[in-house]
Structures are given as C-alpha cells and as structure tokens.
Amino acid sequence: MLQSSPPDDLLYDLESERRVLSAMLHSEDACIEAYSSLTAADFYSPKHATIYDLVCSLYEREIRPTFVELLKEAHSLGILNNPQDIEDLKYISEHYIDDENIKYWLKNIRDKARLRKFELFLRKSYQGLIKLKEPDVEQVLMEAEEELTNMTALEIDDTVDTPGEVAKMGYDEVERRFTRFKEIKELHKGVLPLDGLSTGFDNLNHITLGFKPGDLVILGAQTGHGKTAYALHTAKAVAVESGQNLLYLNTEMSREQIALRWGSILSGIEHDKIRSGDINETELSMIFSGYSRLRESGFYSYPCPNLTPEKTISIARKFKAQKDIDMMIVDYVGRMDKIDPKLAEWQVLEQIVKTQKLIAQNLNIVVMCLVQLNADGSLQGAKRMKNECDLMLRLSPISRDELEINEELKKYKNPNYYIDIEKNRDGRSGVRIPITFDMQRQIMKDAERIQ
Amino acid sequence: MSFDDTNLKKIYNRTASVIVDLCYNKKINESEMYLLLNILELIWLGSKGDDLIQALLEWQNSDKESEIDEIIKETLFEVSFDSDESLHEIAIMITELLASQKE
To answer: What does the mean pLDDT of chain B come to?
Structure first.
C-alpha cells in the first residue's frame, strides 16, 4: 500500500529557491536566466512563488528588482508586510550567489518541481487504481505511460499534439485561410493581406506575406552593398510605419552613426550632407520631423561590438520580457565573436544561425541575420544556413550590362539592385525582385514599373 | 563578493527591514516609509542624486530648527525619485533653506 510520504527534502529544496530569488535581486543576468526558465509553479513554497512573481513583474516594467523595490511593491499590493514576512525577505536577500552558479540552483528547482509532478502522478494513479472495479488494463497502462512520457522524455515547454489537436489545428488554419481568401476578393480587392510583419517592399510582401513570428530570415550582401541600409529599411517598415517593437543589434557602428543614418532615411536628405552639417533651415526642419517619427516608434538600438551568440540569447530574452519585441535584427553575424577559436568559419556560422533560429522559435519573434557575401557573391556555409532559415534573401547590384540587355528590367524606372529570394519555406523561391536603392539617402523601394 | 560588500549588503537589507518594521509598528507613516526607502535605494544604487544626498547630510549636521525641518520634510515627500531633474531641484532647495537658516 502506498501510505508513507517521501522524505521532505526529496521533493523540495528551499535553499535553492532562496538562492535563486536572491540572485534575481542582485543581478540582471540571473534575472533573465530565471525569468526565462522558471514559472511560479516551480517553487514549492507559496511565499517564494509570490516573491518570484513580484520580482518578474518589476523586471517586466523595467524596474530594477532590488530588495527595496520588492518591499515597496509588496507593500503597495498589501502582501508580505508582517514582520515575519519582512524577516523572510531579508533572509532571502542575503542569500546572494555568484552568477556562474545560477544554472545549478535553477536546475535544482526545476528537478524538484518535476519530482513533485512525478509524486503526484504516482498518487493519482494509485488512487485511480483502487477505485476501478473492472479496469481496462491496457487503457490504464497506456494513459499512465503517456503521462509519464510527457514527464520524462520531453522538455518543460514541449507538448505532444494528439491526433484530435492536429486535426483541429489544421481545420482552423484552413478556415482562417478560407475567410482571408474571401476577404481578399471582397474587401481588399485582390491584394493579399500580410500574415506577419511588413518587409518594407510590396513585391516581397506579396510573395512572402510578411515576416512571420518564429521565422529566421537571412540576408546576404557583399561589403558596402547595403546590409545596414536594408536592416534599417526593414526597421523603418516594422517599427516606424507599423509601430511594432524591434530590437536592432549592431556589431560595427557606434550609437551616433546609427542615429545619423535615421536622419537620412526619415528625411530623404543625402547622408553626406547630414554628416557634414551642410544643410539649410528647411532641411533641418525636415530632419527634425523625421526624428519625431523615430521618437514615437518601436525601434530599440543596441550597439554591441563584442556580440556572442550567448549574448544575443540573453539580450533577446530581456527585450522580449521588457519591450515585447516582435523582431530582432542582427547586423551582422560575421562580426560576432567566435564561440570556440578552434572551429572553422563555417562551423561558427552554422552555430550562430542555429542559435538565432532557436531564439526566433522560443520567443516567437522574427529574427533577421545579416551575413557578408564573399567577393564572388558566394556565401560561406551557405548550404547549412539555408537549411536552418525560413527565408533567405540576397541583395546584389544589377550590372550595367544586364540593364542594357535584360528586356524585363527595361520595364522599370531606375532599378539598380536585386533582392533574390533563394529560399522561402512558405512560398515561391528563385524569384528576383528589382529594387531602387538610393545609397546617398539610404532609401530602398520597389523599382517602379513604367506605365 | 568581498567581506566589505557582504557587510554593506547586510546593512542595506537590515536598514530596509527596519524602515518597513517601523511602519508596521506605526512609528512612521506610509509616506515616511516610502521616502526613507527611496533615499536608501538612492544611496545603495549610487547612480544618481549625489547632490541630494550631500544636501541631506548637510541638513542632518545642521542646527535643528522646527519650521525649516518641517518644510524640508514636506518638500521631500513631493520628490519624484525617478527624475534626475526633480532630485537636483530639491537638492538646491534644501541647500538654500539651510543657508537661509544660517543667515
């Protein structure tokens, strides 16, 4: 008979809980780590779960979760305010651990939480068993096995879709597309509405239906051929024109350089003129009005010369928690610090791209990585990158010879660059979109068709 | 964490707890508690409000004169501790009040 209970310390570890909470009160890195790997339900102590929720709530509101802020927050909510609670909070705050050890203590908490689930499963199964009069043994064992498999083989976030769930998901998706198709015909007069974030180009929007959450987009271009301009053009479409939140990580440029580029992009005034200050009063007013639009936008810039793949994870999690970003642009991956100096270039790129795909999927955001093409237009580790990404684009100049002989291009006004869609998981690929790139004004647009 | 850091941390924790306890025991009111906690946080984080802390130290060492003390206290309740500007303004005000007291 299942009567005795397991020893207390088998099912919970209050020391680990206190140490993790304390680390969250002292270090932002620990806070990011705990925020993204635990839930309040993982804590055994209800008081610890409440403190965890309070700290996370402060962190989400960009308030540094110190001991004092925690006391103020708890007091304002009318909780944890008797002398014993204050004493417990003080005790927790003094349990500081070094950041390097946080993963160990987090694992302890998660493991104990899983053990408690297992114990509950055993108890529930036993209770169920003794209540059954004529048990269908096969059914009982199958159900138990399924529950146990979910507990052991799968990560916390993973779920198994049952046949019913897959069927429902499929039907809902078809129904959504059916309704959308009707809308296109009736309301939008044949123009496809976007499924995700705007790409900033009508033709690219038409083919991709926008960048979708969970997508990894790779854009390749040779050096000096508009990688940053493309990134900021995308940022303009997403953060300025659509008001979505976007994080821009730049490994090369200073804060001032990024800020100055926006001056050209949003005012349409040549970048050289802005850089030298050779502008008149009217232009100054146009630039000011451009920056006013930027002020109201969802563009967050993070210049980061020593970017590593690990750091992108931590930064992306922080901005997802605090700014609820919809997209992150990494400009550019070749400038990221190597994870292991012994690895070959293609291996490093493969690892970086895999990390970015995981970020996109786990945070349900779009991640765009800019990569540098070789002088011959090829891409190091291209095949492996292509495997990982959902959309692979290439930005390349149109040669004069091609402009002269290509009849199709003659139907456009001033096309000078192509966006090649090399891979598109959700639609057509192998398509070339002619665009006009005004390098001086840092502006890109679909090449206009001659009427 | 060095020995000094650990001690500082303990002082910070205990001071904060004492402030909340004082409020719980009705020795100070809620506004006073929030004000003291905010000042403690300002000193602990050390990233802003240097001139206000300086002015508060000056106030602490000055001759106590009830009317000016009350004015300073009431003004401190109005400070927005998130705003550098507000912290700077109040620092100037306290310094001026203390100077007028000396005259």
So the answer is: 85
Instruction: Find where tokens 């709530």 sit.
Output: A57
Residue located via tokens 């705050």: A93
ipTM of this predicted complex?
A: 0.84
User: Which of helix, strand or coil describes residue A7?
Assistant: coil
Q: Is the pLDDT of residue B47 over 90?
A: no
- Cα–Cα distance measured from residue A334 to residue A381, given in angstroms and rounded to the nearest whole number: 12
Least confident of A133-142, A413-422, B93-102: A133-142
| A379/A332 Cα distance (integer angstroms) | 14
Proportion of chain A above pLDDT 70, given as a percent = 91
Of the candidates A222, A250, A224, the one whose C-alpha atom is nearest the C-alpha of residue A380 is A222
> What three-state secondary structure class fits A364?
coil
Residue A365 CA to residue A324 CA, distance in Å, equals 9
Query: A406: number of CA atoms within 13 Å, CB side?
Result: 14
Per-residue pLDDT at A141: 83
What pLDDT is attached to residue B36?
Answer: 93
Put the strands of the sheet holding A443-446 in their side by side order. A299-303, A246-250, A327-331, A366-372, A216-221, A391-397, A417-424, A431-438, A443-446
Closest CA to A109 of A17, A180, A27: A17
Q: If phi over 0 gives left and psi between -120 and 50 gives alpha, with beta otherwise, what is residue A439?
A: alpha
Report the amino acid identity of residue B59. W
DSSP code per residue over A333-359: GGGSPPS-TTS-HHHHHHHHHHHHHHH
Average confidence score pLDDT of chain A: 86
Q: A98 and B12: CB-CB below 8 Å?
A: no
What is the distance in angstroms between the Cα of B102 and the nearest Cα belonging to chain A? 35
CA distance A333 to A237: 22
pLDDT digits (tens, 9 = 90+) for A417-438: 999 999 998 888 899 999 999 9
Number of H helices, E strands in chain A: 18, 11
Whole-structure pTM value: 0.72
CB atoms within 10 A of CB B102: 7
pLDDT in tens, A213-237: 999 999 999 888 899 999 999 999 9
B33–A75: do the CB atoms touch at under 8 Å?
yes
Question: A80 to chain B nearest CA, in Å?
Answer: 11
In terms of pLDDT, which residue wins out, A388 or A180? A388
Nearest chain B CA: its distance from A341 CA (Å): 31
- Structure confidence by residue, pLDDT tens digits, A99-130: 678 889 999 999 999 999 999 989 888 888 88
Strand partners, A370: A219, A331
Inspect the interface and report whether the beta carbons of A96 and B41 lie closer than 8 Å. Answer: no
